[in-house]
Structures are given as C-alpha cells and as structure tokens.
C-alpha cells in the first residue's frame, strides 16, 4: 500500500465522528472486501487498527459498542480470513457477552456453516463451552482434520475427549454409518476420508502432536499391536528373516498381559505352528490356560522346562547351518567391547579420535512398529581396523546426567563428526543422525558441521551390476538381499545376516547374536570401503573414489532406515526418500500417456495428482488389501506405487523395477515429482488434464 494512500485513509478517520461505525458502514456496502487477498477494504481495516492504537481514546463501550459488535458478528462468517483478527480486535469482540457469542456460533453451525463456526470459535476461544464431538464430526466428514487439530490445540481436556471419541469410532464393532447418517446432505462430504484406517492415522498424529497418553485410545493401540503381531509372524514363518529369540522378545513385549491380544496370538500360533509349538509359545508368553483351545492346553501340561530350553525347531537348525553363507567378522570375539561405563568409553574415544583414523559408524534402536514417538538410539557402534566398540547410549546418558555432565556424550560425538582428519563411514547416515538427534537434542545442528564423512549409500548408487535379482540363487530359500547387505555381497562375496536387525535393542543384556550383528554392521563398512578404494574400476567407479568422497559432506545424505525401523531399508535403486542420484543408466524418456500405475490405498492424493498430469492411474479403494495392487499390476502391466510395510511384500510379486516406494511423509506434489523423475516421465502442457478426472 502506498504511503500516500495510508495518509489519506488516516486523514479520513480523523474527520469521522465515529470511525468504528464508519468502517462498518463501508464494509457492509462494499462488494470489494469479500474478495481474497489485500483488497482496499482490508487496507482500510488494518490502517484503522493501527490508528486506534495511536489514539486510545477512540474505542467505545456500552450499548453503542454492543450494537456494532452484533453487526460485525453477522459479517465475520462471510469475510476473508485475513480480516478476522483485525475486526475482532477493533470491535473488542473478546469482551462481548460469551453466551451471545456462543449463540451466534451455534446459529452458524445449524445453518451448516461448520468450518466458519469452528474458525470463529477458535478466534474467540469458545471451545471449553462447546461439545467437541459435535463441533468436529462434520469437519472430519469434510476432510478438515487440520482445522480439528487447531480447534483442540490449546485445550488438553478437549484433546483427550476428541481422542476418546475417535478411538470409540475405531472399535471394529462400532458402526461408522451411525456417525455419517445425519450428515448425508453435507456439502463437500468426503465419505472415502472417513474410515477406520484414516481415523486411526489421525489418532496417532494427535497422540504425538499433543503428547497424550496412548492409554486413552485402547482400540487404536490394540489394532496397531495386532498388525505388528501379523507382521512378526510373517517375518518369522513366511520370510524366515528373524531368529526365534529375537521374534520371541518382540512377541512378548507386543502382547504383554493384554487378554485380547493373547487371544489373537493363540490363533496365529495355531495357524503357523503345530500344537506343541503353540503350547510352548503360549507358555513362554504366559497366556492364561483358560484362553487356550483344549488340544493346546493338554499339550501344555506335557511340556517340561527342560524341553523348552533344549528344543530347537527345524527352522533354526536350518538357519544355523546357513550361517556360513553370510559375511563373517574377521576379528576375534574378544575384540568386540560392549561399553556401559564412562571409564571404558573415554578409553574408546582416545583410540577413535586419532588423526588419520577410519571409523565405521552404525546405530541401532528398538523398532517402534508404527507406535507413537521417534526412536531413540540404544546402541552406537564404532568399528576400527582391529576392534569394535558398542556403546550403550541409554546407560551412558543416564550416568552423565547423574554426574551433572549432560553434554559429555554430544561433545564427543560432535568432535568425531566435525574432524576432517578422521574418515567416518556410514550407510544412509541421514536416518541414523535423525534418531541421534531424537536421543540427544544437543546434536540438532551437527549435520551442518560434518566433515570427513563418507556415506556408502552414495557409492552404492554408482556400483555396476548392483541389483536385487542378482543377489540370491535359491529364490525359494531366502529373500533377495537389499541395501547394505546387497552392497556387502557384491563387494565382499557374502551378504550380511540381517535376522537381528529388528531386535529389541533396548533390552539388556544383549544376546550374543545381537552383539555379533551390531559389530558386523559397522565393521563391514571398513572392508567394503577398503576394497572399493583399492580397485574402484572393477566396480564401475572412478579412480578418484577416495578423493571424491573423503572430506566432502554429502549435502543431503539419504536415510538408511526409516525412523520407524519396521520399514526395512529399500533395495539399491529403489529408494523411499526419492529418485536415484546419478543413475548409471537412466530409463528412456516416456510421456504420461505411456505410463500406467496402480496406487496403493494410502496414496490416493498422489494418484489424483498424477492423473491430473495425464498418467494412467488406478487407485485401490480404502478397504482393498495391498496385495490387490500386485494382481492389477500383473494383469494390466502397471507399475505399483506404494509406501512403508507393503513395499517389501509387493516388490517380490512383480518384475524388477515395477514397484516404487515413495516417502509417505511428503505431500502429493513432492511424491509425484519423485515418481516422474525416477521413471523419466516427460510432462508437456498438452498432458495436463488430458484424462478424465
């Protein structure tokens, strides 16, 4: 707004006997102010707000002000959002009679203006006197979850009430149509956005945002635990990628003493084990005998403690015989040190913080299986040429805090990462660093100071012949290798044994298998790096590998692990975080008309966006099983677009490169750009809206 116009507006106010009434008369008679953006009405209103501050005698009170307030209230539901705050301030609506304000909002609600009623309630802080379920239900039906979050944002009691309501709706026995029936004629009604899947995601978002005790939402938590149980049975009995001890740890911590989950555990045991196996695990998980089917209960009586200790399943015999097929640590067991005291840790740092040192760095945390909260690092592994140090971070942080030296650990970690004279090797360091920051907030700016860091994930992208289909000869026996394991197999000849990856890394003492896995994960980085530096050409890399990577901080290091560790790292050439960087052989460019995809049901926004750009898109319905995507992809020659858990299952059911995992935390536009870039889809102006929407 020009200075001349501002001065003219202020002169106008000074000439008016009643500037507040004058502004109102102008807004009521003008059509301009209802437009979006900074209209003349907006400029005059904001100038009056500033002018009143400079002339404190102007504000009115009493009957005259009440009449003006009544007129303003009638206007607020139609005015642009940017005028709300100035008008509420100018006409002192926060001082108006509260019952009168509530009545006005109630009138808006009964007229079907649910969004306007909610926004005005937020601005006037009326929420404590309203029914949170009544106010929020139509907003959720209109897919306005963000407005619902804002509505309860400052009121913990309302947050709990809302979460309890949402949790009730997520009970499998609850009929959601009872909620939707009264709103059938609702404008902008989106029934596809109102189902248990979407609501449970909202519950988890709210639990995390407002730090509410998950105990307020037993239905949603139980359903998430049940999905975890199903996933664990899949990993153990279908993929066969978890050891029995590791699997047992997770089963026990997931089920606990929850009767409902114990019932489901028994059903799953009978589906996957014989009666004896079911009885053994039922006893291990302390399932009450009265919950067991008769055959299992009878078997339970026959079991002896010795049987449970000594019995080893055929699967485990098979697994132990296969150990020689995996990468083996070349250093003796006594050179792996598990550090739980600061005295030991300081000796470790003396060895690590030596100029010219090359250190393999890795971290482990307990998988959260989609539950609330960011994972905290439970183990930090530092591998040197002759020994590996495993740092028990929770114990060390606890000790440092007790001694009043909270900054001790972050100080050493910062020294390591910022020292250009020490080469730090990692694989997908961004994911590790995110978890490290969640564990120790003092490290939040460390990524900016990193020097001498080599992320082998960046090298992975350039290595010739590195693709999952080359990684296993016995397809019926083992899952294709991926991520670091595939790189290790390609460079050193054998893959990593990843069966302990999804361990409970917070449980102490660590099992021997966990210690060996953690040490191997860090030490193999040293061997891979050494081999690639000695002979880069044989892996299709430039001879300046060392020069090109050491001392250069990768601008955007890629995540090795999603923050929730239940999502295994995607295979090389198929990234969750975006398209390939510097692909060795990019696909030939294609038009959107030639590109056919099927979108998993959590990616409907992405699907609609791609369809706008002319891509041939099929969307799964909310209730469809993820596996339907593979069926459609095979029948119609489509690429599957998915995210998270389902990726690992779906990619094995279609041809190589026919399944792509997008980052589900990004918006549809960013996801679409990832997809288009990865598959080299060239969009022209004529493609946009070329398909029926």
Automatic annotation (TrEMBL):
This is MUT7 Exonuclease. The lineage of its organism: Eukaryota, Metazoa, Chordata, Craniata, Vertebrata. Keywords: Exonuclease, Hydrolase, Nuclease. CDD domains: mut-7_like_exo. It holds the Pfam family Mut7-C. Signal peptide: none annotated. Transmembrane segments: none annotated. GO terms for molecular function: 3'-5' exonuclease activity; nucleic acid binding. It comes from Sinosuthora webbiana. Residues 553-563 have a biased composition (Basic residues).
């Amino acid at each position: 707004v020009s200075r001349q116009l501002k001065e003219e507006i202020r002169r106008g106010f000074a000439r008016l006997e009643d500037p507040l009434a004058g502004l109102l008369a102008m807004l009521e008679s003008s059509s301009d102010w209802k437009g979006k953006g900074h209209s003349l009405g907006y400029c005059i209103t904001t100038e009056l707000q500033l002018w009143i501050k400079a002339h404190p005698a102007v504000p009115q009170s009493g009957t005259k002000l009440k009449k003006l307030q009544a007129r303003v209230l009638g206007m607020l539901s139609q005015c642009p959002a940017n005028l709300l705050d100035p008008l509420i301030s100018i006409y002192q609506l926060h001082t108006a009679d509260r019952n009168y304000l509530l009545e006005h909002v109630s009138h808006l609600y009964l007229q079907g203006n649910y969004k306007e009623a909610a926004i005005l309630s937020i601005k006037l802080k009326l929420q404590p006197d309203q029914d949170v379920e009544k106010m929020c239900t139509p907003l959720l039906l209109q897919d306005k979850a963000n407005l619902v979050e804002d509505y309860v944002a400052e009121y913990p009691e309302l947050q709990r009430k809302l979460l309890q309501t949402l949790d009730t709706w997520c009970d499998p026995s609850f009929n959601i149509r009872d909620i939707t029936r009264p709103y059938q004629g609702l404008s902008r009604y989106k029934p596809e956005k109102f189902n248990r899947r979407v609501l449970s995601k909202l519950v988890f978002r709210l639990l995390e945002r407002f730090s509410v005790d998950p105990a307020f939402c037993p239905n949603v938590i139980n359903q998430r635990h049940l999905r975890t149980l199903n996933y664990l049975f899949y990993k153990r009995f279908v993929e066969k990628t978890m050891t029995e001890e590791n699997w047992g740890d997770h089963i026990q911590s997931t089920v606990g003493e929850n009767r409902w989950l114990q019932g489901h555990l028994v059903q799953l045991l009978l589906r996957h084990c014989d009666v004896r196996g079911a009885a053994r695990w039922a006893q291990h998980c302390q399932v009450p005998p009265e919950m067991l089917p008769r055959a299992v209960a009878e078997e339970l009586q026959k079991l002896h403690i010795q049987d449970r200790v000594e019995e080893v399943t055929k699967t485990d015999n098979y697994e132990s015989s296969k150990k020689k097929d995996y990468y083996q640590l070349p250093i003796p067991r006594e050179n792996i040190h598990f550090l739980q005291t600061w005295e030991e840790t300081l000796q470790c740092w003396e060895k690590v913080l030596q100029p010219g040192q090359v250190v393999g760095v890795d971290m482990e945390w307990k998988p959260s299986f989609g539950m609330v909260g960011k994972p905290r690092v439970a183990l930090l592994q530092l591998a040197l040429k002759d020994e590996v140090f495993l740092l028990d971070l929770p114990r060390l942080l606890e000790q440092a805090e007790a001694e009043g030296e909270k900054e001790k650990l972050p100080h050493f970690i910062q020294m390591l990462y910022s020292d250009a004279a020490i080469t730090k090797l990692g694989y997908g360091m961004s994911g590790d660093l995110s978890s490290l920051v969640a564990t120790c907030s003092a490290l939040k700016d460390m990524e900016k100071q990193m020097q001498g860091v080599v992320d082998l994930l960046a090298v992975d992208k350039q290595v010739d012949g590195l693709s999952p289909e080359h990684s296993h000869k016995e397809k019926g026996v083992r899952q294709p290798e991926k991520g670091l394991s595939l790189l290790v197999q390609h460079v050193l000849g054998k893959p990593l044994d990843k069966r302990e990856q999804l361990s409970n890394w917070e449980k102490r003492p660590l099992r021997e298998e966990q210690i060996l896995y953690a040490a191997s994960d860090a030490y193999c980085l040293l061997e891979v790096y050494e081999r690639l530096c000695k002979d880069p050409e044989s892996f299709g890399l430039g001879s300046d590998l060392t020069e090109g990577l050491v001392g250069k901080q990768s601008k955007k290091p890629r995540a090795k692990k999603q923050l929730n560790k239940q999502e295994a790292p995607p295979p090389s050439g198929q990234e969750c975080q975006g398209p390939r960087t510097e692909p060795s052989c990019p696909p030939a460019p294609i038009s959107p008309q030639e590109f056919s995809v099927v979108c998993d049901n959590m990616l409907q926004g992405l699907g609609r966006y791609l369809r706008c750009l002319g891509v041939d898109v099929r969307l799964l319905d909310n209730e469809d099983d993820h596996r339907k995507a593979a069926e459609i992809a095979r029948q119609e020659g489509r690429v599957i677009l998915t995210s998270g858990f389902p990726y690992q299952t779906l990619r094995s059911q279609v041809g190589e490169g026919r399944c792509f995992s997008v980052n589900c935390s990004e918006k549809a536009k960013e996801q679409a750009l990832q997809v288009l870039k990865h598959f080299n889809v060239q969009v022209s102006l004529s493609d946009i809206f070329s398909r029926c929407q």
